[in-house]
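#dry-run=false #mode=assembly
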Amino acid sequence: MDDRPIGIFDSGIGGLTVFSEIIKALPSENIIYLGDTKQFPYGNKSKKTIIDITKENINFLIKKNVKLIVIACGTATSQALEEVKDKYNIPIIGIIKPTVMYLAKEKNIRKIGIMATAGTIRSNSWEKEIKKLMPNAKVINKACPLLAPMVEEGWTDNEIARLVIKEYVKVFKEETVDSLILGCTHYPLLKNLIQEELGNKVKIIDTGKQVGKFLEELLHKEKINGKPKNIPNYKFYLTEIEEGFIKVANNLIPNTIDNINFSKK
Amino acid sequence: MDDRPIGIFDSGIGGLTVFSEIIKALPSENIIYLGDTKQFPYGNKSKKTIIDITKENINFLIKKNVKLIVIACGTATSQALEEVKDKYNIPIIGIIKPTVMYLAKEKNIRKIGIMATAGTIRSNSWEKEIKKLMPNAKVINKACPLLAPMVEEGWTDNEIARLVIKEYVKVFKEETVDSLILGCTHYPLLKNLIQEELGNKVKIIDTGKQVGKFLEELLHKEKINGKPKNIPNYKFYLTEIEEGFIKVANNLIPNTIDNINFSKK
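#status=ok
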């Protein structure tokens, strides 16, 4: 047993979609969430910058005495996880491997679309991981640089969001993918619109759910579960005050964001 | 007389709007343009990062033996110009001061709207400069984080661009501004749509034109004009290959982009 909190970080509000799934899968775990709003967006930053930022965030969470870290950000997972994961003495997981492990178990998934930030698509991390476990799968990549900033603006259900999504999913319709990975943790906030635009035949894969399941197994395997029936303590840190963060958090996980710290870390 | 080229840099294609005005004002000057496409967008990066990037870009241009540098980027001007301008032995100018000097000479400008990136608005640089020369002017600020990425996507004349602009200019219509500064060099590519949405009574101020005039006077004052009737040599450097850059350049300044270098600097 291990009472220490799980650490989660993201560039902004996207990681909240992962947080909301983790607390469903692991309702007794304490969690510390770091939203690096000051350095948002990560999507177009260089690999070197993303690695530096990721190390900064990991060091912050380790000082807060976490037992495990979830990189709840597609860009940081794709650009920095490999570089950092063996440098610390606690497990560090991203969103790609858990999602692809799940995909590989599903039948009827053969043609996979990936929406992600420009940096993530450039890194080709999703496709590489998919080819390891599903060598016959076909992958269609699409960089969607406007989506994360749009979500941060709070535009998740208006005409602009609808038109931007229509434009970005065009290639997936043309290629008739059978499934679509939301490769950036901001995108689940646009899931309904994306599903509407693509139609119900396409299975949309939200990374948060898979990360939740993966984490459950990992805590068990490593014997680092928290106390059962613990009433969890959630702490949030933001590197820049963001009204949007609080608004989205209150919608996504009502009555949870009462312990928020604005800190330059 | 000074035959050395003028150096210009921006995070991407925005600076081309300044370039196109400089070559009108100074048709005999040689120019080296650096488009730091790899690190685009600057809009949301921290002040420290912007200063580091600005120094990198200045050092690159100085090695190319330029006689003067134009920071053709609203974000880098607002966050880094003050920090760097006295550290080099050539003049370094931005887009804010030339524009505000022009504004201060105009009558009937009293209520000024500013559209810019989140970083520029946060820095309050435009308002500070305006208040120095026009203490009675009223300033309405609006951060527009989606506009520069939208221009880089090439979405400058579609329904999405129209709706996004409608949303961002709402506050200027409510406040009935008499003039509007396009505080990011990407925005002149959206000028027609912005003017349509605001109506013809609002004077839209495009920084490139003012920078062109300012530069003409400065070269004269410092006695560093190039050879008159010189057939100019234009060189372009990009830190990442960007199809969009070439497309926009060919529209904005036809037959000019034949000398392009893709370099990591």
